[in-house]
Amino acid sequence: MAAAAYPTGRLLRLRPLDGQLPALLAHLAAWHRGPGRTLPGTRLHILLEEADGAVTVLHLFESAATAERARMAPQQSEWEAGLRVLLAEAPAVTEVRATWNAAQDARPKVSVSIDRDVHASVQDLIARLIDRHPRTPGESLYLSLLQSIADDYEQEFPSTMPEEGEPR
């Protein structure tokens, strides 16, 4: 596999100012509502809280090219400036490349659990449309399509079916 195909990004160790962890979490989430949507290629954002009050953030992009495009974008610079005001010290940054992933190694196919998460979202949309009165003709058609998709999914993947790799 070519190096460009590996998810690439940064591992940041951050020490938030006292009381700023909720603001830091909100700032990370804001990335996905803002620059993460306009700068496509974000793969993963994970925040790990450490016992000493620091946090570690893993931010991966689809490839080295998408990581570099985000790094050079003005939106990224603005977002990083907003991050710095929440920190007691400059972040420790390590450039990383994901060369192995247990989920991909153990499960080369898409996990049923991901499908179940999507199915739960579809069920939520169905419930919201059922509660909507009066519905427009478009909403009624959309509801019918979602119900058909959900029924097909439930027949193919019953909720009692074990995850891929689990004993049957």
Describe, in plain words, how this protein is organized in 3D.
The structure is a single chain. The protein is an alpha+beta fold and 168 residues long. It has two domains: 97 residues, Alpha-Beta Plaits (2-Layer Sandwich), CATH 3.30.70; 45 residues. It is 49% helix and 17% strand. It contains seven helices and four strands. A four-stranded antiparallel sheet has the order 2-3-1-4. Strand 2 and strand 3 form a beta hairpin. Helix 6 runs antiparallel to helix 7. It is elongated, with a radius of gyration of 21 Å.
Explain briefly what this protein structure is.
The protein is of the alpha+beta class and 168 residues long. It has helices at residues 21-33, 35-38, 64-72, 74-84, 102-106, 112-131, 137-156, and strands at 8-14, 42-49, 55-61, 92-97. The longest helix is centred in the last third of the chain and has 20 residues, at 112-131.
Pick out its properties:
single chain; 168 residues; alpha+beta; Alpha-Beta Plaits; 2 domains; four-stranded antiparallel sheet; 7 helices; 49% helix
